[in-house]
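Readers of this paper often ask what the protein records in our data store actually look like. Such a record has a labelled line for the sequence and another for the backbone structure tokens. The tokens are whole numbers drawn from a learned vocabulary of local backbone shapes. We quote a single record here, exactly as it is kept in our systems:
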Amino acid sequence: MALTSLKAKICVSLVSISTALAATVTYDFNITWVTAQPDGFSRPVIGINNQWPIPPITASVGDRVVVNVMNQLGNQSTSLHFHGLYMNGTTHMDGAVGVSQCAIPAGATFIYDFNIDQPGTYWYHSHNFGQYPDGLRGALIINDPDMPFKDQYDEEMVLTLSDWYHDQMPGLLKWFISYANPTGAEPVPDTALMNETQDLSINVESGKTYMFRIINIGAFAGQYLWFEGHTMRIVEVDGIYTDPAEAEMIYLTAAQRYSVLVTTKDDASSNFPIVASMDLDLFDTVPDSLNPNVTGWLVYDEKAELPTPAFVDAFDYFDDFTLVPHDKMPLLDEVDYSFNLDVKMDNLGDGAN
């Protein structure tokens, strides 16, 4: 009886400690229009608290996250979706309009309130009528005190990749599903961005290891990514830790996330390009004016030149099917039930796709 009582007290104490360590992380977001020109072309974008790019959401495993949203767009409804989070038990906080919640009308408010139990790299964005490519998209980082590679790097950074359109989404979507586009060709972006800008400089120190949390926050285009003269070690994909795997180039589909370790050189006299290139195979047509690449730099020496990236003959990217989960969870074996869904892509009676 005494032993049972002792076990109960220990369990209560452990729960109390866990609760004490958890925090409530609160964000107040007024969703507003902002004018920005990340590639030199000025256009309206959707920002938060009159700023763009929008702020990251950062929390730790075990935290409660509260996001107070006010829709001040005036002419559009909106929502926030927390991409990659399972939302077990809080599906109504998932932000998918028409699926798990109603849209937040202009002038209205909504409170997102949920608990975090997944570590890793995620992102949040609008999930209303394809709205997020107009700017409402940002990093969601869940820190993990038990991260298995936490002693293998000195500093972490977020690196977002994206395609970018000069026209706003309502007009592009109207054309996309109209009779004027019977083949269903997706709108081709005008340019590519890195951390919502171009010509990005990332200051680094020699002999250090950095963890880059890389997120493709684009609407459509997959992205090839490489750090010239540096090897990446992949340690996380989409919130799942992996055994470290070396890669010279990786490929990120839209919404995909990688965490990679990059160790800098001992010689700090030169700077090195970071290159992302959109996957042109996804585009029905490639305009002559399109530059699919966006370049940033690892800057060791601010006085040294920012070199032009070297020409790449082919995209020889890492095969992520070879990655091994760090927890060694086995592959699913036999299938109990199999369902086949036949999908037909066709045009409606009015010619719309």
User: Anything to note?
Assistant: DSSP finds two helices and 19 strands in the chain.
